[in-house]
Design brief:
It contains eight helices and seven strands, in the order βαβαβαβαβαβααβα. The chain is an alpha/beta fold. A seven-stranded parallel sheet has the order 3-2-1-4-5-6-7, sandwiched between helices. Helix 2 links the parallel strand 2 and strand 3. The longest helix has 28 residues.
Length: 263
């Protein structure tokens, strides 16, 4: 294993979830000093204990500007200026047609998925400048590329992240700060394999991988692998870009194997 991030300070939001914890472990394995953040303190501290050296936990509700200020302060006190910000925290809402969507669900989805990302960029940018530059990745979704019936709040929030990403890339490029987004498809984490909070709906049930060009769910580390490359020096000329990791979900139904053999 190389240590592409030796000496770097990486802050990951929503770091106790399936994808977030994968991202934290990936960076730590490659030499980074990681700042594990989230609202679930016990899980966050347990992850830091598991990692040992070069890891610290900071409580962070991404919708609270004060929490962002505290998280940056914890990071800099422990390790120095932040080199990489991964805006990974996300929230799904119970499925409902727009006309029956609770305005509170709409507001909460935008607060976490869009405003939380905005607040992260806003709070961490000065630290990235102090580091001499760095990288921000906003974790969006394939739902940010299409319309998705019954999930208007999440879809709208993730579409907004695309515009925010491109705008930040333009604003921060001359500070040597790159800003990109990753758009995961259906990943084998509790976020999509367990019922959406407040409902019995399982997102994975609505996206059968049988039609994907790569006919399976993604593993968290496959999104992490893309993230690690995108925030490394190897991607130093990449900014304002979108990277879809979905096994071909957005392409439409793949040609079945037997049909391809007959062609």
């Amino acid at each position: 294993m190389t240590e592409r991030f030796s000496g770097d300070v990486v802050l990951v939001t929503g770091a106790t979830g399936g994808m977030g914890s994968s991202h934290v472990r990936g960076y730590h394995a490659e030499g980074a000093r990681v700042v594990v953040t989230g609202r679930r303190d016990a899980e966050g501290k347990a992850l830091v204990d598991e990692l040992g050296a070069r890891a610290v936990f900071a409580h962070l509700d991404v919708t609270e500007p004060e929490d962002w200020g505290s998280a940056v302060a914890v990071a800099e006190a422990a390790f120095g200026p932040i080199s990489v910000l991964v805006n990974n925290a996300g929230l799904q809402t119970p499925p409902a047609p727009i006309e029956h969507t609770d305005p509170a669900d709409w507001a909460r989805a935008l607060a976490v998925n869009t405003t939380g990302t905005f607040l992260g960029i806003r709070a961490v940018t000065p630290s990235l400048r102090r580091a001499g530059g760095g990288s921000i990745v906003n974790v969006a979704s394939t739902m940010a590329n299409v319309g998705t019936a019954l999930f208007a709040p999440y879809t709208a929030a993730k579409w907004a992240v695309r515009g925010l990403t491109r705008t930040a890339a333009l604003e921060l490029g001359r500070d040597r700060i790159r800003v990109n987004s990753i758009h995961p498809g259906v990943v084998a984490t509790p976020f999509v394999t367990e019922p959406v909070p407040g409902s019995a709906t399982v997102i994975a049930d609505a996206f059968s991988p049988d039609a994907f060009a790569v006919p399976r769910l993604a593993e968290p580390h496959e999104v992490t692998d893309m993230l690690l490359w995108l925030t490394s020096r190897e991607a130093g000329f990449v900014t304002g870009a979108e990277f879809v990791v979905d096994g071909g979900l957005l392409l439409g139904p793949a040609l079945p194997t037997e049909a391809a053999a007959r062609a």
